[in-house]
Amino acid sequence: MTSPDARPQPPAPGPDPAGGVRRRSFLGYVIGGTTLVAAADLTMARPARAAVPSLPQVPELYDLEDLQTDAALPTSQLITIEINDDGTASFALPRMEVGQGITTSTAMIIAEELDLPVDKVRVTLAPARPELVFNQLTGGSNSTVSTYTPIRVASAIARGALLEAAALEMGYAVERLRTKDGVVIGPAGETLGYGDLARLAASPVTEVVDVLLKDPEEFTRIGKPRNRDDARLAVTGQKDFTLDLEVKGALPTMLCRAPTLNGTPKRLRNKKKILRMPGVKQVALVDTGVAVRAKTFGQCIDAIRAMDVVWNGGPVDGESDQTILARLKKAELPLAVPEVPLLAKTVEERFEFMFRSSAALEPNCAIADVREDSAEIWSGLKVPILAQQNIAQALGMSQDQVKVNVVTGGGSFGHKLFSDAAIEAAKVSQAMGKPVKLMWHRADEPRQGRLHPMVTSRIRATVLAGQVLSFEQRNTSVVTDFSHGLGEIITSTIDEAPTEVGKMVGGLGFSQTIFTLTQELGYNFGVVTQLLNETDDRFNTGSMRNIYSPDTRVAAELVVDRLAAEVGLDPLEFRLRHAKSDKVRKALEKVAEEGDWGRRMPQGMAQGIAIHQEYKGATACLVEIDVRPETVNRKIRNAVTGPRVTRATFAVDAGLVINPRGLEAQMMGGFSDGLALTLTSSVHLRDGHFLEASWDNYYYTRQWNIPPRFDCFVLPSEDRLPGGAGEAGVAASAAAVACAYARATGTMPTRFPINHGKVTFKPKSFVPSVPKSPTNGLKFTY
Amino acid sequence: MPKQTFILNGKPVTVNVKDDVRVLWVLRDLLGVTGPKYGCGINVCKACTSHINGKAFNPCSVRVGDLGRRDEVTTIEGLPDTVGQDLHPMQEAWIDRDVPQCGYCQPGQIMAAVALVKKVRREGREISESDLDTIRNICRCGTYTRIREAVVQGARGMG
Question: Which of A203, A408, B59, B124 would be B24's cystine partner, CB 3.0–4.6 Å?
């Protein structure tokens, strides 16, 4: 037995930490206590990285996944797996489940390494744990990438301790025992359940252990399709979201918000009248608006509609799409064509991408119970430690006075990286001296909530004698807010990157660093550069699912189609010839084959094909679109119909796949997002406020937009480690739809979504800030 | 305060609340029935879809005073009882197809699907692609394709 302080040197790290031909051992601990608790220690396990050739783009050497994974390593030993008396294993995942299926896939990983049925693994969400520092941020599609090996190591250590305890009990050497489905089996077939061994396997003091991980060839659970662990709860209405929790005294609370973006309240003129309204208990002014707490949310809505509030203006009063676009144009850096022969032909395009809302269906919400000297918060939070810091600061408390509980979220799409609702709820609870269950009205979401910033993307490429000599892409964007913690991770971890990468991103801001660590063109086009420039930090922005990639990829792939035409090649053939990686080529070949690339289509229909490379993986998407007038103008009550994608074929190499069924679900969802980004979903800024106020004017993909046929193919991967999945489906989908639209219409769209600009709805009122709930619902029964 | 009485998931309930409070808040905030979700409050997102007398409706857009004492409101919590099973065939199909992602819209999706299948059958048809196109319930996770597959499978299960 050794103490953790006197730990032995770990074995030399190899390039293949998952095992394979040269399996390596890992260090970890059996934590001292009365029942078996195991943890991994990967603090010394940074894998050696390859030497740097001169031409690859940064993400090929070191990407955002590497950075986040490196940031999580130093605290991996603080994440523990516990074996319980009833034979189950418990694990409090320091990430947030927002629909991406990580509680299910994490249970599968633990079950695999522990030799336990998957349904005996209980995965819960850890509350804010400040000691985890950078190891409790859910984003960048990094959850499984960064937790896969530490969780396996901890599970393997637990299994080893169970085997040793069984060996003592049974009187055999460990080598003669095996494990299966939660029991240890002796040579004569005698068995001991993990539950019986949990206490026997416990160690009074913390012990250092080294283990070998299971050979991936022996996996029986990882890689097998599995349904979600919470599906039954979800379909029976028993899955609890923040607003479904009962916290004593936490009554419904909402805010009346300013008529212009980020306006602030001066005073409530009719406070007495509001307090006399049915159900209303308290009102309070906070910096983001006038809060009302009532018996029901319906009575909060009525109170908000009756409020007479004097407002201060907001920072973008008077601004509109056009003024912000003009500002972006002014900030655009000049393109600098590298030296190319005089006769080379230049292809140049400029694209504009409008503001989009990242709101989930579950609106921003949080429960806060703030007392004199303590506070407790419940909310869907992807960065709970930072939420805890921000809430403590807002309340004038120390961090340890604030308890932050993480609740499964009703979607995120980047929205829940910020803790806007939790901070607001804490302030309101403090101001009222009462617990509150705070909810944003739907109308508040696109108008005052987090958005994907407006972006322009310019591309200049040069071609000579059928060769692409250069490809420059310059994005200019309204500032993306990275104050949710990823920025801090970069500052403290970028030193871990190879020196060459450090030089390339040295001196860049957060956004540019993340852009540089994620954007990879994926084509051999001679001199390739992709850069981001930012201006204007007055908007509530955030990193919406897949951050920069959908816009960057849409612009790039449209130009790729132009280049293909320039050199007289079929779009698929051109991509296959220029693809940098085999992964991309295989994905392209798969969608082309399964999606019948090149099949004859009637006038007004066309196919489009695109790729994307990110999160250690590759994707390709092939779609068919119908832009014939009879389709575009099809009538569905109160629906924006427009061009219809009639078929989509998607292929993904996501590295080692834990749960193919969950991965397909993520690609399907990513496709729906990409479709909306290209065709329908945006917000219009007019006179200092955004016009859209609900799903009837913010056109996220609906059933009438979805292709009747969607096929997803999960490709076998050479990789022994998982790549990212949650965001991987968006970029290629958005781009394939754009390319298909361009080919079907014979015109190059340059503004996205394509229907932006025509405001076809009557904007809902800004004062009052929320619409009245209708009363005619019984007229629409079916 | 007026007394509001109606039948909820097979049992009569009475609440003291004003006539104009929408049924969604009576269910969620006063009766603690949280299967129907809030997603917009203006009958657009359909996350609160439930049944009234066997037909789909959106409680965010109906005043509780407009319910009669014999009106039967069924939420996702009461759906299995309508067929006397632990799970309704539509819920079974949903689990089998692994439809939910975040799960927030799914109670409403299932209630809408059951009503849609019944509606097209009243019209003497089986569910078609264009019927599926008319489903208004938003799924912001975008699991629409699996919803379509599950509705068709659930319809078969409904006999």
Answer: B59
